[in-house]
Design goal:
By secondary structure, the chain is α+β, with helices and mostly antiparallel strands. Helices cover 30% and strands 20% of the residues. It has a four-stranded mixed β-sheet.
Length: 123
């Protein structure tokens, strides 16, 4: 086994405008991870204090952690590294897609990366 996945849900005070959404999102991931066929790599679900993208939330980081990575650096800077993807505006309806496409098939979900992107002001 080459590594594992970490799924971190933002728990910032204003992520997505409602902390209750964060708890529901966590529960949706927890349920979905227990259902279906086992993943090719283990997945750990957790919380993170703030990704600094509050207006784009709720935010969820999916990061593959490979064997030999320094666990302290992963905890301190989870968004660092080529295997980290921060998804924005994630809802419970997106959870199965994240698990099936990203964790199971290794495909990043560009529409969730781009969701809630700031709109440039027009002159």
């Amino acid at each position: 086994m080459s590594g594992r996945f970490a799924i971190l849900i933002c728990r910032g005070p204003t992520c997505g405008g409602d902390q209750h959404k964060d708890a529901g999102l966590h529960a949706a991931f927890e349920s979905a991870l227990l259902e279906g066929e086992p993943l090719p790599q283990p997945a750990e679900l957790g919380w993170y204090s703030c990704f600094g993208r509050c207006r784009r939330g709720p935010n969820v980081l999916v990061r593959e952690i490979v064997a030999g990575e320094n666990p302290m650096l992963v905890r301190m800077m989870p968004t660092a590294g080529p295997r980290a993807v921060l998804y924005h505006g994630v809802t419970a309806a997106d959870v199965r897609e994240v698990i099936e496409q990203h964790l199971r098939n290794g495909k990043k979900l560009q529409h969730l990366i781009d969701r809630n992107a700031p709109v440039a002001a027009t002159p």
